[in-house]
Amino acid sequence: MSCGPRWAIPASRSSSGAWCQSPAFACLRLTGDGERVTSVRLDLTPSGGATASYTLSCPDGVTLSAAESAFYIAVEGSATPCDAVFTVSVDGVETMVQKTTSAKTFAASTVVRLPVVACQRNLYQIADCWPDDDAPVGIVFSVSDGGLHGKMLSLTEQAGNWGA
User: What is the signed CA dihedral for 87, 91, 93, 98, rounded to 10 degrees?
Assistant: First the structure.
């Protein structure tokens, strides 16, 4: 059963509830294998500027399948190119980060569609199997950037005489 696209409205409205300017829309399209998306956060950072965050909450969850699900987030329109980072929460836990490969312009009254991506767990914690539990190659022993980057110890390391 398809529930259709999900929308988020930005917090940047005037006290009367009117838009401060025409919004733009960022669209993240995901596929998956039964993952239940509970929120999508979009962080937009212009070069040398402050990051603006927008969150789409899905209280009932959106179950992903091979058919793409579109998540639209309304953002304040701007002619300034921004780096965009989507953080996807599955069952309430941030498990995936999708970054744009280059800065994007979110001009007023436009829709910026990012390529379709498969939902995958790419945020790690210490002691997680890398790259996943099904086919582990190593064990994570250090993380940075909230679990997006880190170091792992290979499962094929051999005992030996180091420094000899």
Answer: -20
Question: In what helix (H) or strand (E) does residue 72 lie, and over which residues does it extend?
Answer: strand 69-76
Closest CA relative to residue 66, chosen from 37, 30, 109, 112: 30
Q: How far apart are CA 153 and CA 43, in angstroms?
A: 31
What is this structure's pTM? 0.66
Q: What is the torsion angle, in degrees rounded to the nearest 10, for the CA atoms of residue 152, residue 157, residue 163 and residue 164?
A: -170
Strands 69-76 and 52-63: unpaired
Instruction: Fill in the amino acid letter for 105.
Output: T
Output the DSSP codes for 76-133: E--SS-EEEEEEEEETTEEEEEEE-SS-B---TT-EEEPPPEE-------TT-EES-S
What does the pLDDT average to over 56-61? Answer: 91
